[in-house]
Amino acid sequence: MTDIRYSIIRLEVTQPGQVVEISHKLPSHVNRCTGYLSRHTQGIISGVDLPEIGLLALEFNSRKQLYINDVIEFEASPGIIPLYRDIDIPLINGQLVTGYYLDTRRVDSKTVLNKMFAPYKVSIYLRCEYLKTETDVRSTAIHTTATQTAKC
Amino acid sequence: MYDQLLFIQQQLKQRNVETALQQFYRLTLEVGVQYYQFYAYNQLLFLTNPQQLPVGTLIHSDCRTRRIPVDINTLQGLEDYSGTISIQFPEALTEEKTIEFIQIIQN
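Predict the joint structure of the above. Result:
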């Protein structure tokens, strides 16, 4: 039986043209990533959609595989919740997800954008699976048992 | 200073990269160039002379991107680029620049 764990990688962009490096350690018990979603979550205020605010690259298993190159856009009025994109990446236990986010909004006019620039955040959501075994015990259950033992 | 070649060998071993060829790759950019793009698929290019690049230069590739910082002369890191690689200078070059990489061709 498989169980799903979600990992969120949050990135903060504070300067125009900034390169934000990603180095995120996934929990060691997850063994496959099955979904991926990235989007602007906070900071940019604009009345119009921006088709590109940055570029994202993600590598899995401590730089062994480059799997994702994506363009991040800004939606002025996000409607429906976007769906996870299906991926199928076998994971080696306890390895890093690495990569970068590059802010690309400075290309048109540096000086104007520098004055207008406001920090913003981008979030990357990873949907990962792990094989659930019968020996897995919820931490609340452990505490309950410990409490009961103490009472005895 | 650490041994750059040893570092590269260790990186390749850790990342399970089998090497077909290792050699130097030099790219000469002429006066007036501000943006240059080239391709390096199925290979890794380790930049060996970032100190020669103007501060603020952006090197962008599929797997890694780097903006040359002010204190680049104090850094010793060796970074690899792969895929579509673009180099964007903050201003057009006023003198010829040679950028040197250690090129790893993958099996």
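Strands of chain B lie at 19-29, 35-47, 58-60, 65-67, 79-88, 97-106.
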